[in-house]
Amino acid sequence: MSGMRARQSMTFPALQRAALRALAALTMILATSVRSNFVFDDDPFQPVTQDETVAVGGVVTLTCNVKENDNSSLQWSNTAQQTLYFGEKRALRDNRIQLVKSTGTELIITISDVQLSDDGEYTCSIFTMPVRTARATVTVLGVPGKPVITGFEDAVQEGGKVTLTCTSSGSKPPAKLHWYRDQEEIQGRPDVVESNPDEPTYTVTSELTLTVTRNDNNALIACAVDHPSIANGDKRTERPLSVLFSPSVSIQPESDLPREGEKFFLQCVGNGNPEPTAFVWRRKDGELPPMTKVDDAFLHFESLNKSDNGVYECQADNGIGMGDVTHTLLVQEAGVSAADPTVMSTPLGVDHAVIGGVVAVIVFIMLCLLIVLGRYLIRHKGTYLTHEAKGSDDAPDADTAIINAEGGHSGMDDKKEYFI
Question: Which residues form the Ig-like domain (predicted)?
C-alpha cells in the first residue's frame, strides 16, 4: 500500500507539468494565429491583409504585406488551408489563381471567375520564428436573377383587384424587391425570404395588390431587385397592365360649318378597352333624315338640308359597357361665308325670328308717330281758321276785313300828319 501511494504521489506532479507545458504551447499557437488584420508597430514581420467582397464571376485580389523580411517567404492559403502560392511558386493547380507580385515584403495574387465555394477566410503566413499569420475574409455575393412577375395572365375589369407576384432567386445575402408604377414607387407586401436547398443563396418573393381604374390601362408595372452585387443600379422586369373598361364616346363632325347641298358626315369615336365595335345612331326629335346612311361609326349625309337640323345621338358598345353622346347639327345657308362671326355663332332660325321682331317693333313705332303727328296738325289748323273768321266778322267792309285778318290792326288809331 505504501508503495502504491508513493507511485501515485510521483505520477501527479508529472501530469501537472505536462498539462502546463501543453497549455503554454496552445496559448502560443493561439496567440500567433489570432494575429490577423491588426498592424503592430513593434513587430515589423507581422503580415497585414484586408477583407474583400466580390460578386460571383468576378475577380478578387488578395494582398499581403510586411514591413521587413528576414529572407523568409510569404505564403497564401485558401479556406481549406491548401497552399495557393509560396513566394513565386504555385502550389495548387487552379488556373483561376494567378500571381501578380512576389517580393520579400509583398505577395499579391488574384482569383478570377469567383464562385460561391470561394467564400471564406484566406491566410497569409510568413515562416519566421515564430510563424506569423494574418487572415483575410473573402465575401462572395450571390448575384440575384432577373425578377419574374406573374399575375398578368388575364385582363382586369375596371374597379377590380389584381395580385401580382415578383420572384428573384440566387441572391446572397437576400436581395430586396421594389415595385413601381411607371416611374413612381408603390408599396407591396414585405419580402418573403427562403433559403435554397444545397446552396448558400436565397429566393425572395414579394406580392402587390392593386385596385385598378381605366387610368391604369397600359401602365408599366415593374419589379426591381436591389442588391450590392449589381454594379449598375437594379435589375428589373416591366409588364403593361391591361384594364377592361366601357367606352367614353365623342362625335367628330367632318367640318365646323356644314352648308346646304354639301355632303357631310358625323363620326362616332369610342375610347374603351376593348375598342367598341357596335354603334347605334338616333335622332332625338324623330327619325333619321331619308338622305342619311349609317356606316358603323359614321353617319353620312348625301346632301345637307335645313330639315337636317337637330340633335343626333351615337351609342357605342364594346361588350364591357356602353357609352353615348349627342351632337347638335346646324346647317348653314349655301354661300354664307365662314369668316362671318355672326353667322357662325348664331343659329339661322334664331336670326330670322330676331330680325322679324325688330322690324315689327320699328313699324309699330312709326305708325304711332304718324298718328300723333296727324292729330297735332289737324288740331292747330282748326284754331287758325277760327281766328281768321273772327277778323272778317268785325270789319265794316271788305278792305277792313282783310286788314284785320292779316294783322289785327282794326282797333289801332290812324296815323295823323301835321303840317306846319
Answer: 47-139, 147-242, 247-337
Last residue of a domain, one of 241, 259, 291: 241
Please check whether residue 325 is in contact with residue 269, taking contact to mean a CB–CB distance below 8 angstroms. no
Residue type, 104: G
CATH number at residue 201: 2.60.40.10
Comparing 91-105, 118-132, 326-340, the range with the smallest average pLDDT is 326-340
Q: How far apart are CA 282 and CA 294, in angstroms?
A: 10
Residue 165 in 3-state DSSP?
strand
Q: Which amino acid makes up residue 79?
A: T
Q: What is the pLDDT of residues 160-173, one digit of tens each?
A: 999 999 999 999 99
Amino acid in position 338: A
DSSP state of 234: -
| End-to-end C-alpha distance for the chain, whole angstroms | 218
AA letter at 207: E
Q: In a 3-state reduction of DSSP, which class is residue 190?
A: coil
Which one-letter amino acid corresponds to residue 34? V
Which residues does 208 contact at the CB level (< 8 Å), separation at least 6? 163, 164, 165, 166, 179, 186, 188, 189, 221
> Is the preceding peptide bond at 130 cis, omega within 30 degrees of 0?
yes
